[in-house]
Amino acid sequence: MIARVLGSGRPLIALHGFGVDHRIMLPLADAVQDLPWRTVFLDLPWAEAAAVTATAKSAVDVADEVLAEIDGHLGDEPFAVIGNSFGGMIARHVAHERRDNALGVATLAGVVHPAHADRAVPERTVLHTEPSVLETAGDAREAFEEVSVIQDAAAFAAFERYVLPGLRGADPAVMDRIAADYALDAVPEERHPEPFTAPALHLFGRQDDVVGYEDGLALRVHYPRGSFVVLDGAGHNVHLEQAGITAALVRDWLARIDR
């Protein structure tokens, strides 16, 4: 499952979202490249590089495989974990199941409620569009428009570089299997109700109509060392649409761990 490792120092496990691959998390490497952390990027089962041997049939299977990969790669070495969307749900699971070794947890537009019908989400809103960008987007236009709140040249460049390759390479058969059983067998904060006292970061887009932000904010009591941030001008790809602020927040989270 390990797609690549960048940097040196303490391990930071990076977990991507559903239907994409590790490349959507690569901006994190730029954000932390001068820090004493090595980012370990995993490809989840539907990713092009992993799908050939994938056997996972549910979110529980994915979570078990991620834990096994981390245990096999790190042993008892302490680590931090960050996840985006579906990967955020898995990151919370990992942090709680390996609490003794978890230095901290962060989520970027993380899934809280697996079922879409249970999520509190805002209405779909696009804040800025540059028609010329959409006109030249080609066959990537529909996917870009569907998720992007800021539709300008910079946003499309980030989407084309970090999101589109994973979308195009994802295995639909593996995705269908897991989508049919998308929930963990227990909410991490309910299975482990004692507060998670390591530094945490939970970042949301104010215009995210995929997972929203209200459900994530409801977890705030469980994370006494948690920063909960809702960014305006960002949807489900909050870390791409607000890259600078996201980088600063991730660096702050790691600094809190370092202290």
UniProtKB/TrEMBL annotation:
Pfam families for this protein: Abhydrolase_1
Lineage: superkingdom: Bacteria
Residues of the AB hydrolase-1 domain: 11-241
Keywords on record: Hydrolase
GO molecular function: hydrolase activity
Record protein name field: Alpha/beta hydrolase
